[in-house]
Write the structure tokens for this entry.
Amino acid sequence: MAPLLSARMGSLGVNVPSGIVVGISLVIGLAMVIVFSYTSDQKAIHVAKDRLKAHLLALRLFQDQIHVVLASYGRIILATGHYLRLAFKPLLFVIVPMTFLIVQLDRYLGSVPLSSGQFFLLKVRMDNPDSLDQASLRLPEGLISTAPPVHVPAEKEVGWRLVANKAGDYVINVQIADQIFAKRVIVGSGLPRLSSVRLRGRFWERIFVSGETALPENTFVEGIEVQYPARNITFAGIEWNWIWLFFVLSLAAGFLFKSILGVEI
Amino acid sequence: MKLRSKVGLADRRRLSVFLALLGFILLCPPRSHAYAGPGAGFAVLSSFWTLLIAFLYSLYAFFVWPFRQLFRLLRRRNAYGKAQIKRAVILGFDGMDPELTERFIAEGRLPNLAKLRGQGTFRKLRTTYPAISPVAWSTFMTGVNPGKHNIYDFLARDLGNYLPYLSSAEIKGPKRSWKIGKYTIPLGGARIKGMRRGTPFWHWLGDAGIFCSVLRVPVTFPPEKFSGVLLSGMCVPDLKGSQGTFCLCTTRPSGDKFREGGVRVPIQRTGSRCSSYVPGPEDPLGGGSGDELRVNFEIHTDPGKNQAGFTVDSASFTLKVGDYSEWIPVKFKAAVGFSAHGICRFYLKEISPEVEVYVTPVNIDPGRPDLPISHPVTYSIYLAKLFGPYATLGLAEDTWALNEKVLDDQAFLAQCYANHEDRERMLFDALEKTQQGLCACVFDTTDRVQHMFWRYLDDDHPAAREVPRDQRPTVIQDLYARMDELIGRVMKQIDEHTLLLIVSDHGFKSFARCVNLNAWLHQNGYLALKSGKTESGDWFDDVDWSRTRAYTMGLNGLYLNLKGREREGIVEPGAEAEALKDELRGKLDGLVDPASGRTGITGVFDCDAVYAGPYVDNAPDLIVGYGDGFRASWDSVMGKVTSQIFEDNLKAWSGDHCIDPRLVPGVLFCNHSISEEKPAIVDVAPTVLKLFGLALPGHLDGKPWTVGISTSRSVAPSTAS
């Protein structure tokens, strides 16, 4: 599916990741405006925004009245708080799905896979620095270690410098004593789902940063990490992190749709 | 059972903790996951910008303030240097009558005014010739007689064609336009010219560095630039450029036209769905074709619930029969880039068997004013943002609609008090903002309500004879009590360094009998009709000017058809004109109504005797002072000659003040003592200037009062008994 999409968009002269971000931003922008319109107190938001503007105008109109300037500034802070409260109320409805959506999109759009011939580090963090010496790697065919492991007891970490000969979806096994822990590593191109770290426990952190199953609970290993390079998306001649591009485009889409649909945000 | 409930409670607590934790974690996620869509983006961005702008502006204001003060000192504008007061608060109650006030004080209805009278001052306030609001308030603000401010009535006459025009402001289309086929593209905005002359006293105060907040004082449209804030009042037009044109949308077929002040618009009905429109201003692209712009709206009636749903532009709302909508924004579109923004309220009169909707005159939208209605322009916007949309029309209380029985008493009162409440909010905001300086606000509810409900106060008013005395509502009594309660709230806000003045421009009397002065002039040989005519149309249609020596239009002015001044004048200026004036005065003064035996005219005043100044030439030649219970007839005001001189006034507009000014003085209350026994409205401006320590301009006609400013006492408010 992804190669097909890539080919289609490539033939149109559109970069696939940027096309996806643009499309998602438009859809999310529209969806959010609709959700906002149904879940917010539109009249209260309108009044709150108007009050804010009034207090701002008061600063200008009564600029020689220092007591008015001071009072208006205080009211602006209060009115801003009130407005934020009203604006964030509907966000409670969308924050959970939006957060999970962004986390999932980040798996695809946040990083690029490793390239063949590109050196990368595999780090294993443990509970006990004494166990660092016991760790060893079982590399699949296509991956080689280019240097002896480096132990960093202060960080409770041991690291290997690795390189892939060819593209592929690899599983690296880390052996400690008689236990083996797997970590997935992807070398190639396109938009595969990437997970830079595999963790033990830490449910919420795993939700946000890991795309792999948890490491077993009764082991020394806290986590195994491979750093994928960050993905830069070219849009309008500028290199963007996808989340910034999504931020700007979804805001623009929101502005557009809120005007069309007459929704107060 | 107990155990289960305990477990349930524990579970719920755990669940609450879990949800709170989940929310906290989701609201504080790592890195970029904090972004939760454009809604959050807008909220955060706009809040950030608001706070940043506010912070920067506050910083600027703080840093600049000492320099501004220094600049003032260098310009020797030592505000308050010689002032006897810190603040002057002037509350104007248009038409508050001294006799009624005394009566209601005696009845215990007005405790706060009673307290003011006891501890400060209460006097009758002499008014202007004539006792008409635009004239009197112009004198109030300028401190000069009408000969120096040029306002003699609501209307003035065009000497070229004997037609009326609004005396206070002239609104014309743009100077240049570009014609393309049938379209005319206006190049530039409307041209507005204020006709009132003289300088309002708040301009002098502003120049001296004394801040002023001025709200709804009549004849302040177009607003003039000065150092302070001002919201224009009476004489602000509606979006059509009129002084208020309501609209009755109805399924009831009728070819009748309203005499004035309103239009009838048909409603097209298909089942429970109806459609109609709100008529707006003339199409600016029409090149003077007279085509009007419209805003369509739809009504979906629901007789079962006695209500109807409305869709007007993007606004949707539901009204029960007898309910008003809020102010609804309406946008009249001519073409891309050419639109007019207004606001109006809808009142659902009836949905079965016929559908009738009353729409208020389309007011200029204060949040997006197409014409300037405040100084600075942002002041009206500020008020609209702070309190929501409000009536901007000068005569916002739709007296015509009640006169024409389009509105009933209750609907009219609801409209009046809704406007009044908006103005109260504005007043208290202005009081808060103006801790030093002048805060002046005029309320016209008193005038409108007395005009329309005097019939219930009068023992034998022709417009209320069918209503038994014991069933008459106490509208005017309630009105005065409500104003007293407002005054009490204002008194709570002031200290002993503040001067509080309660003033009215004139009083009120019954208007039971109409006098058609044009009919009298006709029957007495001063005004001639074209051959074969016994009556004229409006605005002197069928009047033979070549044989007419005098005519009247408007409320109190009587004009000679003067040669060299009027287009078809025949009366020679000088001796002939003076003789004619004397003759008319002699015959009219003391004119008796044969039906009642009462005096219909108690005084006729020569303009040369009551006016002095550079604009006296624009004044009527004679001012007619009607007696108590009389006023110029509706036809006479509109330049119409009828066969009857005296007739009953059967309209709801049943009280008036456009009579002999000696019969309708205004009120003056003050929280300090005033020694003058016969103060006049013309004295207010010089008095305030003097109290703020300013030298009085030499051209003022008013004389400052001696005010006993005693800072050791204050007038405490009282509650209604």
Chain B has 17 helices and 36 strands. Chain B touches chain A through 51 residues (CB under 8 Å). Confidence is low (pLDDT under 50) at residues 1-7, 25-34, 712-721 of chain B.
